[in-house]
Amino acid sequence: MEQKNYHSSITAKISPKEAFHSIAMVDAWWAINFNGDATNTGDTFTVQFGDTKVAFEITEAIPEKKIVWKVTDCYLPFLQDKTEWNGTSVDWEISSENDTTRIDMTHIGLVPGIECYEACNSGWNGHILGSLNNLLNGGQGQPK
User: Is the pLDDT of residue 105 over 50?
Assistant: First the structure.
């Protein structure tokens, strides 16, 4: 049986340029404690939630189309394997049709059966389907 990576999709009546820019504004929708840059290939950034910390490198950035965040280091204190996200990646794909932009986010390596899956699935749903979606659709994100 094929294990599926975490995936979510949202749409907004904004341009792909606005979507790309909003994803890169990590502190506006995901993590208040954000350091670094999340826009261009080679950029690095970290997010921290209490003792939880994740460091990323942008390995691919195609403005208005795609951005890939590779986890370079993490500390997830609520797991037995506190570095379970290391080597995984968060892939963002941006597409448009008429006046609507679709954002597909896939966390490659976050699959059913790994220790973090249930908690991280729930967390991403809140951040993507809730906070980022609110930000993109004319509201305000709710970063933690």
Answer: yes
